[in-house]
Amino acid sequence: xxxxxxxxxMDCPAxxxxxxxxxxxxxxxxxxxxxxxxxxVENVSRFLAYAGFEIGVESDGVFSVVEGIRDQANAAKPASxxxxxxxxxxxxxxxxxxAKIMVMAASNKMGVGDDELGAKLMINFIKTLKExxxxxxxxxxxxxxxxxxxGDSPVLDDLRELETSGVTILxxxxxxxxxxxxxxxxxxxxxxxxxxxxxxQLADKVINL
Length: 209
Known about the structure:
By secondary structure, this protein is of the alpha/beta class. The chain folds into two domains: 3-74, 2-Layer Sandwich (Translation Initiation Factor IF3), CATH 3.30.110; 101-208, Hypothetical Protein Ychn, Chain: A, CATH 3.40.1260.10. Helices cover 31% and strands 22% of the residues. The protein has helices spanning 14-25, 38-50, 115-128, 156-164, 173-178, 193-202; strands spanning 3-6, 30-35, 54-59, 64-69, 101-105, 136-141, 168-172, 189-191, 205-208. The strands form two sheets. It has a five-stranded parallel β-sheet. Strands 1-2-4-3 form a four-stranded mixed β-sheet, with helices on one face. The longest helix is centred in the middle third of the chain and has 14 residues, at 115-128. The N and C termini lie far apart (47 Å). Mean pLDDT is 86; it is low at 79-94.
């Protein structure tokens, strides 16, 4: 039997939360989730993929259907982490297990007062982040901070270097949609507030900008 969820007209992370609730309450092997924005398509698809589903997406230009199918034998398995992303158990830092630092940028500028100066400071900050070394774990962009993850970002090469080194870059899908930047995103995973809250919970330290 196919479980069908109508998550149209829902802002993220509601579609992911509804999907998560269904998987936790029923042993599902086939689910179809109706959504009406690209951010929800990416977030629900990633959540179901981590939960062990084979993913297919159909769209008619108005709304999309994210379909997930998995073996009945695996139907009772939960998602890998509480938000559908691979979980990393929190715990004290060890010599071979550095502290996990999450940096959340809610603007493309640092500080208030002089916007030109603030933009320069943010660029310099991103370029210097690599000096944190392996402790830098997540870099999250929300609000106008998501502009730094677009194709014309002045720090795009620096972000690529960080991602290559193992830093996970998360970019708020609701913010991209609101600013009409979804098609311009050039790096990172489109994410939702559930992923962000979970990352904050798992991090040893959160730095907000």
